[in-house]
Every structure is written in C-alpha cells, then in structure tokens.
Design a protein that fits this description.
Elements (H helix, E strand, L loop, with lengths): L2 E6 L5 H25 L7 H5 L6 E7 L8 E6 L5 E6 L5 E6 L2 E4 L8 E4 L1 H6 L9 E4 L8 E8 L6 E2 L16 E2 H9 L15
Antiparallel strand pairs: 1-2, 2-9, 3-8, 4-7, 4-9, 5-6, 5-8, 10-11
C-alpha cells in the first residue's frame, strides 16, 4: 500500500520549485545527450520540457512497512511521459522488467537518480529507445518507510509527438503522430499494465 501526493509543476513554491527547476534542467541535459547520440538537433527533445506550458509533474510516493513479502506497492507499467527521474531514500522496492516475467531489483542509492525512458521518447526515436516497464514492491523493512521523489518530464498538451526524419531514413515510422493530450487521455482510459503505445502503432 502506498500514498501519492501530486504536486503540479506550475505551483512554484520555494524549495519544491527550486528542486523541480534543477531536476528539469538535468532531464533536459540528458535529452540533449540522447539527441546528440541519435543525430537530431540538440534541443529536439529537451525543448518539449522547456516550453512554458510543459505538462511535467513531481510526485512523492510513501510506502509504509507491510508484512506481506510478495505484495506489490505499484503494479507493472511504463511511464507515459518523455523521461522520468527518480530518487529514493535508500529503501529497496523498485524493479524493472526483463521480460518473461523476470524482474530485476534496482539497488537504491539516495545519492543517485534512476532514469527511465518514457513512452513518448520511444515513439519519437522510432523505438530506438524503449520505455522501460517497471513496478514497485511493497516495503518489507519494518523500521522505516520507503520514500521516492519522481519527476515526470512531459510536453505541453498540444505538442505533436512524431519521429524526426533523421531517425527514419529508409525505415517507416512505427507510430502515427499524436498529441500529448491525446496520448495522456488514452493512457488514463486503459489499465495500468497495458502496453498503451501499441495502440498508436502503424499497421
């Protein structure tokens, strides 16, 4: 069991606002390195997070101790946004899927970020970068809670998500163009564990 607090990024309040700006800057630098690696203009991805009406958000998760060792705190899913940056307080729980029902625990490091590729970046890179499926197990440490602070980097609702021509070459686009508002609405209309990006594949 866990509790989630959603903090809308536009509510720029003191320390939270400062943290958000710093982590957004880090996310943009990572996206610019990815852009450089795949051969597109440096700000092709990061500009979407820097737009005035960027639909990014910060979420604080609290996982109190439980006694059920196999309990899942938050089920299998991929993040629908562009890029996710997560920090935790050093209590384990995060796992990533290797496929075939195999899960790899991620060692928690309170001094490091865990970076997840989101669905939108998978679509914009034509599948070169894959959105990682992950889950959070319930916290079985009885002496402390697990806390995670998660930045979800998203574009403006009207942003058109499409693969740049530099990444197509002779390959056809795998996904049709769509807006973030369309994909966000689609995401919350379907079950958490679904591979929701498949609905936007070009047959």
């Amino acid at each position: 069991m866990f509790y989630t607090v959603l903090i809308v990024i536009k509510n720029r309040i003191n320390a939270v606002s400062s943290y958000v700006e710093c982590v957004r800057e880090l996310a943009c630098k990572i996206l610019e390195l990815i852009a450089q690696g795949v051969g597109v203009p440096p700000t092709y991805f990061s500009r979407l997070l820097n737009s005035f009406d960027s639909d990014s958000l910060l979420r604080l998760n609290h996982y109190p101790p439980v006694t059920h060792t196999a309990a899942i705190g938050f089920g299998e899913h991929s993040d629908p946004q562009i890029l996710t940056l997560l920090r935790s307080n050093g209590v384990p729980g995060l796992q990533i899927s290797l496929g075939n029902d195999t899960w790899l625990p991620v060692d928690p490091d309170p001094l490091a970020f865990c970076v997840n590729i989101g669905d939108l970046l998978q679509a914009m890179t034509n599948g070169r970068f894959v959105s990682v499926r992950h889950r959070a197990m319930a916290n079985t440490l009885q002496d402390r809670s697990r806390l995670s602070l998660v930045f979800f980097g998203g574009p403006s609702p009207e942003a058109i998500i499409t693969c740049p021509p530099q990444l197509l070459k002779q390959n056809q686009p795998r996904y049709r163009a769509f807006t973030w508002a369309e994909y966000k609405s689609h995401t919350y209309a379907h079950r958490l564990g679904e591979t929701r990006l498949d609905h936007f594949k070009i047959a």
